[in-house]
Specification:
With 169 residues, the protein is mainly α. It has a domain of 64 residues. The chain is 50% helix and 7% strand. The protein has six helices and two strands. The mean pLDDT is 84.
Length: 169
């Protein structure tokens, strides 16, 4: 993987998929989190700036904080959801495996992705309550209220206070 190829995949595959799967987010800022692997793009990548702002969309790239696998939404549920769908299809070679994964990604429901992101928000809250540490229990999350997913999670006062106390100004 090279940076130009990664950028091309973002522009031609990832950004269009975000627009297709999350139409309700149009007009808001959508953040794509990536780790800091060498081929990944910088947060201020000038070549992506135009692709990020198409038809009322604002898509921003952000890098995952170092040593924070707990905050990787892909590991929190997106990969498992895709894999569960992909396993339903037999794949006997690399080409059929890639096709099965692509089909699974296309089949994943936006509600599944929403659950992953709400879980991520609850995990962020747990990290704030633990003052940025890793000695917390994974939060048990009741995601749907009256059959509807929240767009965002209201965090506890303790999380806000702990987060504010750690800010470096």
């Amino acid at each position: 993987m090279t940076r130009p190829l990664y950028r091309k995949l973002l522009v031609e595959k990832v950004f269009p998929a975000i627009r297709a799967k999350l139409p309700i987010r149009r007009g808001t800022t959508v953040i794509v989190q990536q780790d800091k692997a060498g081929p990944h793009v910088r947060e201020d990548d000038a070549e992506l700036e135009t692709a990020e702002k198409v038809e009322g969309w604002r898509i921003k790239m952000r890098c995952q904080p170092p040593r924070s696998p707990d905050l990787n939404v892909l590991d929190l549920g997106v990969f498992a959801s895709i894999q569960a769908l992909q396993y339903r299809k037999a794949a006997y070679d690399a080409v059929s495996l890639i096709e099965a994964v692509q089909n699974a990604f296309d089949e994943i429901r936006w509600q599944t992705l929403d659950k992953c992101f709400v879980t991520l928000q609850k995990l962020m809250e747990a990290i704030l309550v633990d003052s940025g540490g890793k000695s917390f229990k994974l939060p048990r999350v009741c995601l749907a209220v009256n059959g509807r997913m929240p767009l965002s999670v209201k965090v506890s006062e303790e999380a806000v206070m702990n987060g504010n106390s750690k800010l470096v100004l």
